[in-house]
Design goal:
Oligomer: single chain
Number of domains: 1
Distance between the termini: 24 Å
Largest sheet: 8 strands, antiparallel, barrel
Number of helices: 7
Strand content: 25-35%
CATH architecture: 2-Layer Sandwich
Helix content: 25-40%
Number of strands: 8
Length: 256
């Protein structure tokens, strides 16, 4: 199964960038988590989240944002849950997780779900903060037949700010021009998760076919071709690796 770093080349989101008031920077952080289940146990894990875990999260101050499974079999469609939660701060996240783990209700739920053995084999967590050109995640925003695309870009050291400048300077507007919906743009907050060289962002599409058509138009757009060329003057490409992951929202995801 794909792990967060391999799956997504993965994420660390640096800059605790605020999408609030410049005078009072937000301490809000998001946490991207990827669970790999033991063989055949993804349905049990989904049921546990649907019926119990999400409510216990909220009880302890953790905001449920979105829950997805990969669309492709070779990316973990049968054994992977990807989800995003929100915390008031990194300290609040620590306190919430401590309270959650100690909650008697959670202990009972976990034991019952694991009566036949462990259902999760691996957990990866990455704290991320939105960039200054990202808007707050639209929790609860729904759209018929929508799929999500989580993309992770790895830059050469020292060039993440250049990539941010290109995104801030018009690349994200071209996404919209070509029919894509912007969800969020972020960096890992921790150095060991790539805060100095990783951009993680999410788009939404009406369908997989629509995504393919939008990316084709985007790459052929003269404005994009010039923008990319201009951004590479003096140092070459701004990305060493691009990892896309198409995701389908679960039936219990607050955001679909």
């Amino acid at each position: 199964m794909l792990k967060l770093l391999s799956l997504l080349a993965l994420i660390g989101l640096t800059s605790a960038v605020s999408f609030a008031d410049t005078e009072a920077p937000s301490t809000t952080v998001y946490e991207l988590r990827v669970y790999t289940t033991t063989p055949g146990n993804l349905p049990k894990l989904l049921a546990r989240f649907r019926d119990h875990t999400m409510a216990i999260f909220e009880k302890h101050g953790i905001v449920n944002v979105g829950y997805w499974v990969p669309q492709d079999a070779d990316k973990g469609a049968d054994n992977t849950l990807v989800y995003l939660i929100k915390h008031k701060s990194r300290d609040a996240a620590t306190a919430s997780w401590k309270a959650f783990q100690a909650d008697p209700e959670w202990k009972t739920v976990r034991e019952a779900s694991e009566a036949q053995g462990k259902i999760v084999s691996h957990v990866e967590s990455t704290f991320i903060a939105q960039t200054d050109y990202s808007k707050d995640f639209p929790i609860g925003q729904n759209s018929p037949a929508r799929i999500f695309e989580l993309r992770t870009y790895t830059t050469p050291e020292g060039l993440l700010t250049n990539l941010d400048a290109r995104f801030r300077g018009g690349e994200t507007d071209l996404f919209v021009k070509e029919g894509m919906t912007k969800i969020f743009f972020s960096h890992p907050t921790d150095l060991n998760k790539g805060s100095s060289h990783i951009l993680i962002y999410m788009l939404a599409h009406a369908s997989r076919e629509a995504a393919k058509a939008s990316w084709t138009k985007f790459r052929e757009d003269p404005q994009w071709i010039k923008m990319k060329a201009d951004s590479e003057v003096g140092h070459g490409p701004l990305t060493l690796k691009t990892v896309p992951l198409f995701l389908v929202p679960t039936d219990f995801s607050p955001t679909k």
